[in-house]
């Protein structure tokens, strides 16, 4: 609506300027030119406002899209971390169960210390792998 009134104001300014030219009235011509120029400036300001609004909207949409992408990436990473942690705990529990079973079998053979060293290395390696991931 403002665009239409600005166009009408520009047209009225042109008409007033033309009337001043026809009658030789410099004051009327100057007022017409001023009205026409003012209307043109208003139109340009409206164009700039619209362009800024559109660009701001584009930037906001882009930022929102990036935020959604980051949110999904964080959720995926958190999910992967939980799976790795669960697998590490399950692996450590399995190693511990196997070592206890082996210890029970070999407790009579006297190789306890060797079994502990192997178990310690296996558990340490499993935990390091879980931490690295």
Automatic annotation (TrEMBL):
UniProt superkingdom: Bacteria
Record key words, sorted: Membrane, Transmembrane, Transmembrane helix
Transmembrane region(s): 83-100
rRNA-binding is among the record's keywords: no
A Pfam family hit: CsbD
Ranges of residues in domain CsbD-like: 4-52
UniProt-listed InterPro entries: CsbD, YjbJ_sf
Region of interest (Disordered), residue spans: 1-42
UniProt cross-references to SUPFAM superfamilies, sorted A to Z: Hypothetical protein YjbJ (SSF69047)
Basic and acidic residues bias spans: 1-12, 24-42
Family, as annotated: Belongs to the UPF0337 (CsbD) family.
Stated name of the protein: CsbD family protein
């Amino acid at each position: 609506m403002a665009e239409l009134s600005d166009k009408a104001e520009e047209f009225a300014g042109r008409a007033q300027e033309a009337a001043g030219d026809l009658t030789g009235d410099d004051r009327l011509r100057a007022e017409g030119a001023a009205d026409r120029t003012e209307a043109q400036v208003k139109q340009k300001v409206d164009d700039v406002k619209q362009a800024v609004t559109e660009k701001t909207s584009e930037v906001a949409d882009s930022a929102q899209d990036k935020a959604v992408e980051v949110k999904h990436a964080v959720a995926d990473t958190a999910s992967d971390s939980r799976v790795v942690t669960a697998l590490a705990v399950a692996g450590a529990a399995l190693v511990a169960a196997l070592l206890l079973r082996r210890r029970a079998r070999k407790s009579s053979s006297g190789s306890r210390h060797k079994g502990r060293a192997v178990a310690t290395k296996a558990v340490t390696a499993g935990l390091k792998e879980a931490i690295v991931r």
